[in-house]
Amino acid sequence: MRTRPFPNLWRRLRRNRLTVTGLVIILLMILFSLLAPSIAPFDPFKQDFSLIMKPMDRVHWFGTDQLGRDILSRILFGSRITITISFFSVCLGMILGSLTGLLAGYYGGRIDSAIVWMTDLALAFPGMLLAIAVIASVGPGLEGIIIATAVYSTPQFIRLARGSALLEKRKEYVAAASCIGETDFSILFRYVLPNCLAPLAVLFTLQMANVILIASGLSFLGLGVQPPSPEWGAMLSQGRTYLQTAPHLSIFPGLAIMIVVLSFNLFGDGLRDALDPRMRV
User: Residue 188 carries which DSSP code?
Assistant: First the structure.
């Protein structure tokens, strides 16, 4: 039996103004990142030593940094890096984790026990510590940070997909599909997986916020995207030296991180409520 995991989703989402606000901010961030080369007022890499740490004005809305680069332009281009890291790492983590969790939950046995043991071991480490350990092995940079945050995301998708598969495989439609000759592969991907999409979609949204924080933290520590790339965490790290003399160097990248993370959390919470059958009364 196939189900529609997202029936009338928008009608329920729009009832929550905070959810809609979070979604609008996310869409605006995506739009600004796509149009950054066209709407950025200045070249984010161009240095002008006559404009070093210039405060906010009508020309430079967010001021300039310690090398005379326009902060607004760097934040707009930095959104492209943030979206790239968060989207690809969470997608990679969801694909690997969901497939592993579904197979473990559906078949069980020793493979399931081994996967659960490894998942619990990975989840026992703090997220930042696990990401630092991975990036120390693969090296800093965009590719390294994507791999590190994907490894951080995968165990959470494994646990959720496994629990969903354990719940679904006990239902009547799985037994009925097996009786009419459906293969395990067909049952798993035609029937079980569609019924597990709702919780996976919620975790995907919430995990985007977590990955942005982890990636920004790694760049802040110098282990992520390296300068002169306008990554928000790296900008925050460079600006901390000038907190007393030029606080705008850190304020605006920090606000960008806070607003985007808050938006993903608001949208994820609303999506969870909209997809929860107990909230449909």
Answer: I
Q: Domain with 116 in it: what CATH number?
A: 1.10.3720.10
* Residue 269: strand, helix, or coil: helix
**pTM score, whole prediction:** 0.89
In a domain, 280, yes or no: no
pLDDT in tens, 109-162: 888 899 999 999 988 888 888 899 898 888 888 899 999 999 999 999 999 999
SS3 assignment, position 129? helix
218 Cβ contact partners less than 8 Å away, ≥ 6 residues apart: 128, 131, 132, 135, 140, 145, 148, 224, 233
Using DSSP's 3-state secondary structure scheme, residue 64 falls into strand
> And the tokens for 56?
């906010």
| Per-residue DSSP letter, 125 | S
Domain that holds residue 141: 28-33+50-275
Q: Give the ranges where 180-247 is alpha helix by DSSP (H).
A: 184-186, 193-220, 232-239
Distance CA 159, CA 105 (A): 9
Instruction: Compute how many other C-beta atoms are within 10 angstroms of the C-beta atom of residue 68.
Output: 17
